[in-house]
Design a protein that fits this description.
By secondary structure, the protein is of the alpha+beta class. The protein has helices at about 25-40, 135-145, 155-160, 165-170, and strands at about 5, 45, 55-60, 75-85, 90-100, 105-110, 115-120, 125-130, 180. It starts with a strand and ends with a strand. It binds nickel (II) ion.
Length: about 180
């Protein structure tokens, strides 16, 4: 089932999300719905607060980047209670990021090119892995959502001011997107 995506200005996007428990009610269905929602929106990552659930749950589909980055081939991951343990490199890279919760906006964001991450998959099996490139990019963006952050928090105040009109329109419930959104009231 495709769920409506929350928009910038919705308080849930600024909340610290709660850990997922092993007996979390409706977890399987929520994950399935998130994959449906991500596919319909043609996105590469989605965090539970973006579908109105303040839970530490993220899905990633990096397969659109497989041509440039072979590591992204078949890379679909469900991350439950994920944690970045380390940034094993000092190298930061720039990428023009967007977010399904901020339709119509994209900005260059600098982030470390490598993460060491620990998470539980949909079967609650623990994984500890090192990801670089787009896998590192997407995971950092999505994990930010679990701590109430969005990508515009990483850009310069000048750039943010230039986006002011668009951000205000979102806050006021006037966002439009080519996918299903939950406009602010
Ligand atoms: Ni996002």
């Amino acid at each position: 089932m495709i769920l409506p995506i929350t928009v910038y200005g919705n308080p849930i996007l600024r909340k610290k999300a709660q850990p997922v428990t092993k007996d979390q009610e409706g977890l399987k269905e929520l994950i399935a719905n998130m994959y449906d929602t991500l596919a319909a929106a043609e996105g590469v990552g989605l965090a539970a607060p973006q579908v109105g659930q303040s839970l530490r749950l993220v899905i990633i589909d990096a397969t659109p980047f497989a041509e440039d980055e072979p590591a992204c081939k078949d890379f679909k991951r469900t991350l439950i209670n994920p944690e970045i343990l380390d940034f094993p490199t000092d190298e930061e890279v720039k990428f023009n990021e967007g977010c399904l919760s901020l339709p119509g906006i994209s900005e260059d964001v600098w982030r470390p090119d490598k993460v060491e991450i620990r998470y539980f998959d949909e079967n609650f099996v623990e994984h500890q892995e090192v990801w670089n490139g787009m896998r590192a990019r997407i995971s950092q963006h999505e994990l930010d959502h679990l701590d109430g952050k969005v990508f515009t928090d990483h850009i310069s105040p000048i750039r943010r001011r230039m986006l002011g009109g668009k951000l205000n329109a979102m806050i006021k419930g006037k966002a439009t997107a080519r996918y299903k959104i939950l406009n602010n009231k």
